Amino acid sequence: MKKLVLCTLSLLVLCNITHANEVTANEKAKNHFGVCLISGVPSQQYVVVKRVKVAKGTYGSVEELYPKLGNAAQKLNANAIVDYNASQRFGFWPWRIVRPVATGTAVRWNAPNVDCQSLGGKEI
């Protein structure tokens, strides 16, 4: 009985211990790419640069692909990714592994200042 009480108490104490790291402004700025993700085709004029596809090898959220997508757009000097689609897809072993995949078309705006929010996009 004493062992059960001791195990229960230690479990409760250990469950209440959490380690959270605060995200600083520098880390937020480092992961901000200034790239607009738009799921459809916007009304704004643009030049198509290249089709992009990024994926993660294993489980995870689609949001974990934002840094890869932002880096791909920056390497191509693109301002936005249109026809953006992100979903969970089966990997090589479909019954075991589902992984996040994001696709889209990297584009460069013709206008200098385009508001991503007004076009229905999300800036990463």
UniProtKB/TrEMBL annotation:
Keywords: Signal. Residues 1-20 form the signal peptide. This is Uncharacterized protein. It comes from Acinetobacter ursingii.
